[in-house]
Amino acid sequence: MTYSRISGTGRYLPEQVLTNFDLEKMVDTTDEWIRTRTGVERRHCVAPDQTTSDMCVEAAKLAMESAGIGPQDIDMVIVGTTSPDLIFPNVATLVQHRLGIPACIAFSLEAACTGFIYALTTADKFIKAGEVKRALVIGAECITKLIDWKDRNTCVLFGDGAGAVIVEASDEPGIIACHLGADGQYKDLLYYPYGASKGLAKAGTDEAAIMMSGKDVFKVAVSTLGNIASETLAAAGVAQEELDWLVPHQANIRIIQATAKRLNLPMEKVVLTVQDHGNTSAASVPLALDVAVRDGRIKRDQMILMEAFGGGFTWGSVLMRF
Ligand code: UT7
To answer: Hey, whose CA ends up nearest to atom 2 of ligand 1?
Structure first.
């Protein structure tokens, strides 16, 4: 049987760091409120002329390097993002061309904060079907360009970045189980009000910015993430004690703590980057994965559960041996 397994990881975070103290000067907020309600202490923000594909390219170079491969070895590129450079061509084609990857399957998909989990699951299916040998899978966002910087309810939460992985065919697992879900009945709780067919407006103005009913999103996120984590383990026949690491979407420390509690998992087994990155939407899981791989916490053959939840709502999880 063919499995897929992650053979390399990489990340890119923009140079500019915005701290909670910087935000105190911009809106009516405090470092204390942001830290205690969300866990965020600082976040990275793209420069005005920087794009999502710029970040993808840098993260991908590091992922290829750590996998010991070059552009010619890749036969699929998928980018999970809600903040693409352009409406088309899709970001994956821009990345494929800029990295010198030979012509191949290349597409972006949009599942808000669950974008990377959807992209990784898709790559896993292509590899298991024998159609692809090695995929570059990226989660990336310029989400700070979609924010109203006068709205304290949202502007303190988000940050930019890109995380990339190389996934390749393997005789041994690898990715053990993927679970995806979505329910559009929650579309009005978290959304961006403009788009190609609804009409375009200048990004980052108060009429064109992320809209969120934070408390309602919080409640559904906690129950959905708790459920999907336990369901994924149960479906794969993996006991909670076998789990080495939870790599969750980094939206809010309180949501992460609640998920860990539902899993009976000590926080020492949870990779946390929310304090340094904020909520980077589709980039958050691959960024956290790369941080823990590179600092030596996540090691080969360990059992890892990744999960995410976002606008739509969409949600998903991937259980794997690293
Ligand atoms: O990644 C995709 C999914 N997104 C999420 O998972 C986000 C889910 N939601 C959350 O993380 C939380 O709901 C928030 C962090 C967004 C908000 O935390 P909360 O504990 O639910 O606060 P709240 O919205 O109920 O607001 C409590 C108070 C309000 O004041 P009053 O009405 O009690 O007087 C807000 O106006 O805090 C106020 N507030 C702030 N105060 C200082 C809201 N934002 C701020 C702020 N600084 N930045």
So the answer is: 310
Residue 275 φ/ψ region, left for φ over 0, alpha for ψ in the -120 to 50 degree band, beta for the rest: alpha
Q: Which of 142, 136, 146, 107 is nearest to 280 (CA)?
A: 142
Cα(291) to ligand 1 centroid in Å equals: 27
Q: Is 37 in the pocket of ligand 1 (CB under 6 A)?
A: yes
Q: What is the 157 CA–ligand 1 centroid distance (Å)? A: 9
CB atoms within 10 A of CB 218: 18
Residue-by-residue pLDDT tens, the chain, 322 positions = 789 999 999 999 999 999 999 999 999 999 999 999 999 999 999 999 999 999 999 999 999 999 999 999 999 999 999 999 999 999 999 999 999 999 999 999 999 999 999 999 999 999 999 999 999 999 999 999 999 999 999 999 999 999 999 999 999 989 999 999 999 999 999 999 988 888 887 665 667 789 999 999 999 999 999 899 989 999 999 999 999 999 999 999 999 999 999 999 999 999 999 999 999 999 999 999 999 999 999 999 999 999 999 999 999 999 999 9
Please, which residues have CB within 8 angstroms of residue 318's CB and are 6 or more apart in sequence? 117, 120, 121, 124, 175, 177, 178, 305, 306, 307
Q: What is the DSSP string of 225-265?
A: HHHHHHHHHHHHT--GGG--EEEE--S-HHHHHHHHHHTT-
Beta bridge partners of 177: 319
Residue nearest to atom 48 of ligand 1 (CA): 152
Q: Model's pTM, two decimal places? A: 0.97
Rounded to 5 degrees, what angle do the CA atoms 150, 274, 25 make? 30
Instruction: Take residue 171 and report the two structure tokens written for it.
Output: 């005789």
Name the residues annotated as catalytic.
113, 249, 279
